[in-house]
Specification:
The chain has 296 residues and is an alpha+beta fold. Helix content is 55%, strand content 11%. Strands 4-5-1-6 form a four-stranded antiparallel beta sheet, sandwiched between helices. It has a two-stranded antiparallel sheet with strand order 2-3. Strand 4 and strand 5 (105-110) form a beta hairpin. It is elongated, with a radius of gyration of 25 Å. The relative contact order is 0.10.
């Protein structure tokens, strides 16, 4: 991402965003093994890798053969992708192109749209002709870098500031909604534990992005989601009164809130003062903003 940022700041403000169609599902085993054998001479290792590729996968309890492709999510797959696409790196370097690649994601930076279209056409011929891979023309494009996403990131146009891609934000919110689903009958301690695992991993990956305001807003939204879950757990009026009193809410206010017919999401806003950030911090909830500032 830092390298891509430097290319844009140096004036290469067009990107050839190349998407390889179902890369991990379509890799040719013979071609891949031929490239592995260039470096690996131990036949036992080669046999082990071939066995790994041909082992098959379990889908809905049934074994499916794998005559092509590498197991998606397998620990060896990204390494094998790099071995196969090393030829692509060398070809792009030989042509003097400025590019960044991570596994099967490749962005080539050029100075104009016309240059980008020429590069797209010629590199597509190389990928499909020499490497026997398929370029997804629907997902590939020549565009401004700030209109595309790379590894979950994108850019702001002027200074090429690294930002979160819109889809990254959407996926983050989907995951948080899943982890704070009020219909799940799990303890608050377990819910916070699962949240922390996801949040710390997420911010560890996306710390490069300029996301201070996002993290601040996410923290507030997550606490509201948890207040909603807690209100749902306090099912009975008597329980709500007792818990609100224990949090220091005046008796009259506790009675009014406990007897409210508003839904859990609406009440999560009304209980903001009773369940502030300090309450959730004491419960062990990690702050995205605090961790983000530490990593920066």
């Amino acid at each position: 991402m830092k390298q891509a940022q430097r290319y844009i700041q140096n004036g290469l403000k067009w990107v050839v965003d190349m998407d390889l169609e179902q890369f991990f599902d379509r890799v040719n085993h013979d071609m891949l093994m031929a490239r592995v054998a260039r470096r690996v001479t131990d036949k036992r290792v080669l046999k082990l890798i071939r066995t790994y590729l041909n082992a098959g996968v379990m889908a809905d309890g049934a074994l499916e053969r794998t005559d092509e492709g590498t197991p998606r999510g397998g620990p060896l797959s990204p390494l094998l992708a790099n071995i196969l696409l090393d030829d692509l790196d060398k070809e792009l370097t030989k042509r003097g192109l400025r590019f960044v690649r991570y596994a099967d994601d490749c962005n080539i930076f050029v100075a104009s749209k016309r240059a980008g279209e020429r590069v797209m056409e010629s590199v597509t011929r190389f990928v499909e002709g020499k490497l026997k891979l398929k370029v997804n023309r629907d997902k590939s494009a020549v565009d401004r870098p700030w209109n595309r996403k790379f590894l979950g990131f994108s850019f702001l146009s002027r200074q090429a500031t690294i930002r979160l891609a819109p889809k990254t934000i959407s996926r983050f919110k989907e995951k948080i909604r899943e982890l704070t689903d009020r219909t799940q009958s799990i303890s608050m301690e377990e819910r916070i534990l699962r949240l922390n695992r996801y949040l710390m991993g997420w911010i560890g990956y996306f710390r490069l992005a300029s996301a201070k305001t996002h993290c601040q807003n996410f923290d507030q939204w997550i606490r509201r989601r948890l207040r909603m879950c807690l209100w749902k757990q306090w099912k009975r009026v008597r329980t709500r009164i007792r818990e609100l009193r224990a949090l220091g809410v005046p008796n009259w206010a506790a009675l009014v809130m406990a007897n409210s017919r508003r839904g859990a999401w609406e009440m999560s806003r009304n209980t903001n003062n009773a369940l502030p950030a300090s309450y959730w911090e004491a419960k062990g909830l990690k702050s995205l903003l605090s961790r983000y500032l530490e990593l920066r």
